[in-house]
Design brief:
Helices cover 43% and strands 16% of the residues. The protein is α/β, with parallel strands linked by helices and 345 residues long. The chain has two domains: 238 residues, Aspartate Aminotransferase, domain 2; 92 residues, Alpha-Beta Complex (Aspartate Aminotransferase, domain 1). The chain has a seven-stranded mixed beta sheet, with helices on both faces. The protein has a four-stranded antiparallel beta sheet with strand order 9-10-13-12. It has a two-stranded parallel sheet with strand order 1-11. Helix 7 links the parallel strand 5 and strand 6. Helix 3 crosses helix 10 and helix 12 runs parallel beside helix 14. The protein is globular and about 60 Å long. The protein binds ligand TLP. The site of ligand TLP has 14 residues, from helix 3.
Length: 345
């Protein structure tokens, strides 16, 4: 049976061109700064982001952790959305390993933060309070259904950060999806923040890796932080090679994933047992629920799995389906047939 795996865009496999580039990659010891392929990926990433420098890391989680550890010392505070991936899905790593105090403000359903609430959350100088050092945004926003935070919404938070003398970091795990959806160069998004973390291993289909980009002085300190969390990864050019192919060849095709997500959302909206707002689907993530509260999500998930369709539950009320390289328009038709069969039964 052909499996249609919509659990995440992290399940993407490297392309032929990536495998070839990995095989042929020129390598060296990256801890000595001598892996030419890693150096090329870092330079290309910095250029694409419009930043001075960049650092290759193992994962998005490591990228956010290293960025937060570099921005904040023990007892410093970071403000982020209460639906942020960094808050919910990264084991509280910045608190556990860095003693960083996380202060959340509610995410709005469109993935943005209310500038007034962020301004109120910034601490005034007072012996009772931690120092606010950093604000984090996420674009696209995972738990808000792949929502795209607009440049204007980012500018509003940037203004708050600048006024408060606080740095701004972006969890841009899917920032290329945001750029494609907004129709702007990714550097226009990165220009709104001091530092950014983006993933090569999601929609861009590289097997492993993320990149942090920012000022050269920040990246030099982040490189030390990456080492101390075990991220000095030697002949990493074998992975960076795939990342270069990802950046050079896999960005423009994200429009296909967005179109497939749209088709899935529109199709689901026609099934009475499914609860979905197709207009909320902007990129490659489709969140949907069940109209009948008596219907068990686990039963539906299993029914789909039995038909070769894999999806995850985002929470107790919503499924998440993610389109990606390897999911075709025909697959979407099969998924809709399977959903119809399972929930219509
Ligand atoms: N998200 C994964 C899971 O961890 C939930 C997924 O399947 O979506 N920031 C954002 C916004 C992310 O969505 C993710 C991964 C990360 C950071 C962490 O990246 P990795 O998995 O590379 O550590």
């Amino acid at each position: 049976m052909h499996t249609i795996d919509l659990r995440s865009d992290t399940v993407t496999l490297p392309t032929e061109a990536m495998r070839l580039a990995m095989y042929q990659a020129e390598l060296g010891d990256d801890v000595y700064g001598e892996d030419p392929t890693v150096n090329r990926l870092e330079q290309l990433s910095a250029e694409r982001m419009g930043k001075e420098a960049a650092l290759f890391v193992v994962s998005g989680t490591m990228g956010n952790l290293v960025a937060l550890l570099t921005h904040c010392g023990r007892g410093d505070e970071v403000i982020m959305g209460d639906q942020a991936h960094t808050f919910i899905y990264e084991q509280g790593g910045s608190s556990a390993l860095g003693g960083i105090h996380v202060h959340t403000v509610p995410n709005l359903p469109d993935g943005s933060l209310d500038p007034a609430q962020v301004r109120d959350a910034v601490r005034s100088p007072n012996i009772h309070f931690p120092f606010t050092r950093l604000i984090c945004l996420e674009n696209t926003h995972n738990r808000c259904g792949g929502a795209v935070v607009s440049l204007e919404q980012m500018d509003a938070i940037r203004a708050v950060a600048q006024e408060a003398g606080v740095q701004l970091h972006l969890d841009g795990a899917r920032v290329f999806n945001a750029a494609v959806a907004l129709g702007v160069p990714v550097a226009d998004i990165a220009a709104r923040v001091d530092t950014i973390q983006f993933c090569l291993s999601k929609g861009l289909s590289a097997p492993v890796g993320s990149v942090i980009a920012g000022p050269a002085e920040f990246i030099a300190r982040a490189r030390r932080m990456r080492k101390v969390v075990g991220g000095g990864f030697r002949q990493a050019g074998v992975l960076a090679a795939a990342g270069i192919v990802a950046l050079e060849t896999m960005v423009d095709r994200l429009t296909e994933d967005h179109a497939n997500a749209q088709a899935l959302a529109r199709g689901l909206a026609e099934i009475p047992a499914i609860k979905i707002d197709p207009s909320a689907v902007r990129t490659n993530i489709v969140m949907f629920g069940l109209s009948d509260p008596g219907m068990q999500m686990s039963t539906v998930q299993q029914g789909l799995a039995d038909r070769g369709v894999r999806i995850n539950a985002a929470d107790a009320h919503r499924f998440r389906a993610v389109t990606h390289y390897g999911i075709s328009a025909e697959d979407i038709i099969c998924v809709l047939d399977a959903v119809q069969e399972v929930v219509g039964a």
